[in-house]
Amino acid sequence: MLDEIFDLPIPHRINEKIINYLGEKSWNFVNDADRKYKDSFYNIISNPMLKDAGQAVVSYSKYGDYKNDNILNFFGDHIFYLIQEKSNFKVKDVSRFYWNLYTPQSVCQEHMDENHIGRFISAVYNLHTNDGGTQIENQFVESKESQVVLFKSEKKHKAISSKTSNFRLSLNIVMEL
Question: What mean pLDDT do residues 46-53 have?
């Protein structure tokens, strides 16, 4: 079940610039089922039976070594401050920015962003409209450009890749309450 969903006043051309900028980044395959285990790049691309869970660029992690992309972090901060102003949640600080890329071949598993009940809230910001989206528990929310979906980070959710677009790009922000 969703906690909040709303549109943000981000122009299409800004989202387009971020998408183009992300196209220049180095992406890493992710594995939602068990984030400690990742198949090698070679295994993912050479085994037609093995599905990837999408790709990610981590531009900021409060408790990690990812604080080095000023452009992505500036945009992520902008989204965060808009969420702070618009949300009924009392969000205090950003825990992480994950930029996610899914192709039609990506198959994601349900997972939680954090398991500390009541301490974190997750946001999915959609960079473009497509028929993919986010499934939170049993509710599907289709990707709509400049829209934010907020839910408690301990809720099980998964990304759904687009079937009609070559890609789906979104920003996942985990915030401390």
Answer: 66
